[in-house]
């Protein structure tokens, strides 16, 4: 154990220093007296561990499982695809539960079952057993990852929603940086089965107490108002629309919902494709495997940076403008790779643009959903969106591979992705011409909560 601590602490000093700097920046935004910030900080720590164990550990354990169990890669990735499918399908019913009863007991229960499922994962010996476990992992992911946490943000924050989302998604994005190497180390030291048992223990110690003890449904449960405002604040708050909410049945039939869902579904396809094919795409432009690996690693760093920078802007700039900027960055990045991808500078600039444009758009999706429909049916409406996103997320890797095979090259894939981003930008233009679901004015003239 001492050797593990030395391995983990020594090489990560620079990363820890960077995290401390970011924490200092974050604490400058966050009024510490409001219970919502303390709750959200705890939930963010739980997101770090939940994403790390339930979502990212698989990539570090796939090869050891393949070698030990003598299963082929298709069998293993098929189980992972099934996990994503079950996560998407569970999002809608879980959303209705959250809107009606709050997220506390759903997140707590799913955390408990997540621990049991990871332990069951560590004991799999048959394919059907593994598929059953991964189906269950997908279901509990829908109850502990971003969607229930975003619902908490929608209820507890109005004016500071962007900062809250930045705090939450920063730690979620950090999960891959922490848990992929940690899981690899645990596997090297003790094997993949013991690694999963250790990760299950970490999951239990961190997530269950946070969800049981810290999470509350509404600020009124602790005698507070959203954002920690008093009934008579000492200084005037930023303009806020009255806190009305749109029923889910009305929301999902509206053109605004269709436009917004279409935009983010296209972005989901682009993002999943680029992350799945990140290294092969760069290798296709004559970069070595080593160079492609470290350039692709910039995606996570740019995603973290983008969330810290863009998060506060959500509270100050109309959301549709930010969405257009992020989609524009995706288009610029893809264009740079297509035109100058063989140059190292071109590959790096591509990854910077795509890392910020793709990695930060999660904040916009959550913020725009809350801005458009309020908090009362937020999780249900988000659950309907997630069913659509699940389809695009599932189709993207295979669809991109088939497209590459049919057109015999990655340039055709880049052209396809550029066309999809242009289509998404057209959706933004349509969106700003539609009446806002809550206050009826044209979106292009609206100011976000």
Spell out the blueprint of helices and strands.
Layout: H1 2-9, H2 13-29, H3 35-69, H4 73-101, H5 104-121, H6 127-144, H7 146-156, H8 161-190, H9 192-213, H10 248-251, H11 255-276, H12 278-283, H13 289-313, H14 319-340, H15 344-359, H16 361-373, H17 378-407, H18 410-431
Mean pLDDT figure = 82
Oligomer: single chain
Question: Given the C-alpha coordinates, what overall shape results?
Answer: globular
Q: What is the gyration radius calculated from CA atoms?
A: 22 Å
CATH class of the largest domain: Mainly Alpha
- Total tally of structural domains: 2
Total strands: 0
Order of helices and strands: HHHHHHHHHHHHHHHHHH
What is the beta-strand fraction? under 5%
First CA to last CA: what distance? 49 Å
Q: Can you tell me the CATH superfamily of the largest domain?
A: MFS general substrate transporter like domains
Unreliable residue runs: 1-23, 231-242
Note the total helix count: 18
Helix content: over 70%
Q: Structural class given helices, strands, pairing?
A: mainly alpha
- If you consult CATH, what is the topology of the largest domain? Growth Hormone, Chain: A
CATH architecture of the largest domain, by name, is Up-down Bundle
Largest beta sheet, briefly? Answer: none
């Amino acid at each position: 154990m001492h050797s593990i601590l030395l391995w983990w602490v020594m090489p990560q000093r620079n990363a820890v220093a960077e995290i401390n700097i970011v924490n200092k920046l974050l604490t400058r935004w966050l009024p510490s007296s409001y219970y919502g910030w303390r709750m959200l900080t705890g939930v963010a720590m739980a997101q770090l561990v939940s994403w790390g164990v339930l979502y990212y550990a698989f990539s570090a354990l796939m090869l050891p499982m393949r070698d030990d169990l003598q299963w082929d890669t298709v069998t293993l990735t098929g189980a992972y695809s099934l996990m994503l499918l079950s996560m998407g399908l569970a999002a809608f019913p879980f959303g209705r539960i959250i809107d009606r009863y709050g997220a506390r007991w759903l997140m707590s229960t799913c955390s408990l079952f997540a621990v049991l499922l990871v332990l069951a994962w560590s004991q799999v010996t048959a394919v059907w057993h593994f598929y059953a476990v991964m189906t269950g992992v997908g279901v509990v992911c829908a109850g502990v990852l971003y969607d229930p946490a975003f619902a908490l943000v929608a209820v507890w924050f109005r004016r500071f929603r962007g900062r809250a989302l930045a705090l939450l998604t920063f730690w979620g994005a950090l999960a891959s940086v922490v848990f992929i190497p940690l899981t690899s180390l645990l596997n090297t030291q003790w094997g993949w089965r013991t690694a999963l048992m250790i990760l299950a223990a970490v999951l239990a110690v961190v997530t269950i107490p946070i969800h049981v003890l810290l999470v509350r449904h509404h600020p009124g449960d602790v005698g507070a108002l959203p954002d920690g405002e008093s009934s008579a604040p000492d200084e005037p708050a930023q303009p806020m629309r009255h806190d009305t909410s749109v029923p889910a049945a009305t929301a999902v039939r509206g053109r605004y919902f269709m436009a917004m869902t279409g935009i983010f579904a296209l972005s989901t396809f682009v993002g999943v494709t680029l992350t799945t094919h990140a290294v092969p795409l760069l290798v296709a432009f004559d970069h070595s495997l080593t160079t492609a690996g470290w350039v692709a690693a910039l995606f996570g760093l740019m995603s973290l940076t983008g969330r810290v920078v863009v998060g506060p802007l959500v509270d100050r700039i109309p959301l549709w403008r930010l969405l257009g900027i992020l989609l524009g960055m995706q288009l610029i990045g893809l264009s740079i790779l297509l035109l100058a991808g063989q140059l190292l500078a071109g590959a790096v600039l591509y990854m910077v643009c795509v890392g910020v444009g793709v990695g930060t758009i999660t904040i916009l999706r959550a913020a725009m959903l809350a801005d458009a429909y309020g908090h009362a049916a937020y999780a249900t409406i988000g659950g309907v969106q997630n069913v659509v996103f699940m389809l695009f997320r599932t189709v993207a890797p295979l669809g991109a591979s088939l497209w590459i095979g049919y057109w015999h090259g990655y340039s055709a894939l880049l052209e396809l992705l550029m066309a999809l981003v242009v289509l998404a930008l057209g959706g933004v233009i349509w969106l700003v011409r539609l009446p806002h679901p809550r206050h009826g004015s044209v979106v292009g003239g609206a100011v976000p909560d």
